[in-house]
């Protein structure tokens, strides 16, 4: 027996697994198609049966507006089954109480002819169906009346009524038939669409008029069965509505059944009131309602027949599969099944969106890896290739015309190559090497050392230039790789946030609602967006009482007790409709607060200063205090500094890492203009939960922290952004304390004492001498002292930003209400 290799065994194993996977996927796809085909055939059969009954249906004993309207809508929605539907409607008309087959066939032919004419001019659309049905019905009936007898006002009125009924029914069927043709994208139906669906089903029932099975009339059984279904699903409103609609349409089909409208409406209302029980309770309500009115409206025989009809409907109702009731409940607004279907749909959309975002994140991550791989792979080989290329260029230009070429490069290759390498090393060490500095041993080896030296110096200059640009390209690739990696991380965080929003928080919402209602507050809706620690977001719509601030004094402290974390009001918004409701958003209360003050002046008292500042909350629990000084003075320098701060702020708000954000800002500023424009960046990111502060100082002056009687300086040696393509970013992290005053300034203030003075010690003394703790007064006082030091002369743009960090004190303390338990937070999606 021949022994197989390990690779063959592994390959065979993977091949077998792959074949099994493909077979399983193929079987699953076949099974899925079979299920879809079965469901589609089931609905197709139902539509054909409906067409048969609508072809037989009549109202007022002479009008049949149902069949053509149904066929017209099927023409636009399910043209593949139009032939079967047409044949079924034709067969139904043959069994009608009054012969109307000829009228129906003629109306269908006229409708198709008009429709084909519209299609020829490319104006065919579902919105034209009601008009086409009206025209076809009116023209055929009018022509028949003119041929058969003299046209009278009464006959013209009946023709118009039938045509108008066909138009209205077409509009109704357009809303209802898509439920059966599986063309709806979701399960959300409006109340008007539910009514249209009920009218369609009631119209179908009129096709069973005069069908009798012993003492039982089929249309009465079906109408009560329909009432039981909608009463169980939608409660009393839907039960009564179905009773009124079905009773009205059945009374139009059979004038002797006019009392059915009140009987069915009352029965549907009683059945819907017992919806919270079970099927038996709903059935009992319908039996009770039909029995009570039967005693008043009919004879003893009518009472007995009505009881039998109700029992037959109850029997069908009890035998109805639960799946059919659940399917119907998905379409009825307000039911738990409808709400769950919408939530499932939203969850699928969220999952698909999160999956797509994760795929894009992985794409950017792979691109980042590929760029990094291009810059690191085969670095040694590329170096050798570059040196070899350099040697070939020198040999080609200096040695091709020499008579000793074959002797040097063929017979003494290694000696010549070593000589060339030594000469290259010498030129690399000393580029200004002259002919007089050529070593004597070179002249012994080479016949033209001066010419070789000139060529090598020229080629080395080109070689050095190529190395510079290749390094630039490699640095750019590194930057692009880092930026792609940062974008990938941001998109990955976004995917996690999308998944986190899909968590079910019904129990927590109900717990908050019960606690607030026990306090007597009128709560309309509660939506928990996030329960993550430090990132709580809860939206409550409640009835606002003018003059009483329940949100800050009652709701926020109670939420703090329930959640176990300080919660505060983020924003309030009154509804414009004036119904007394307002939307209030509660969020995590920060442990620290930041108060800022700014003072500045332009050089020479000019209108525009080259300095820009920004104090903004980034939205991720961090507060940014930033200062930028553009190169030079005036409007252009101001635009450069504002651009730097704006780009950096947006990058940080998107969730990008601080170092990567600085590098991206540097590359953007370098590409913005070919001129030499740069800007300093001085930013402090204050964590408002623990006061840890990260300082990013790019070419800026030192910052100072005043803590009691102590003044601490923070500095870093980084060049401004926009000068070099690759910069090193040093981040300085310092934990601040409550009461600390942070002072950030541009060079116009820091350089005020001149070069002969220790600027850092001088500035520390100035800051120490200022007594106020209010940031704005502190900034104004420091700027005023600088003015006095220069005797009122403004020699450069000057800006100072002062921020004070204070421990936050909740305005209202939490309180415990009897029966309230601490909320259990859901697990965070990883």
TrEMBL record:
EC number: 3.1.3.16
Keywords from the UniProt entry: Hydrolase, Membrane, Transmembrane, Transmembrane helix
Annotated transmembrane regions: 43-75, 81-114, 126-144, 156-182, 194-213, 225-250, 257-274
A GO molecular-function annotation: protein serine/threonine phosphatase activity
UniProt keyword Hydrolase, yes or no: yes
Record SMART domains: PP2C_SIG (SM00331), PP2Cc (SM00332)
Domain spans labelled PPM-type phosphatase: 595-805
Stored NCBIfam families: spore_II_E
Protein name: Stage II sporulation protein E
Organism: Paenibacillus aceris
Lineage: Bacteria, Bacillati, Bacillota, Bacilli, Bacillales
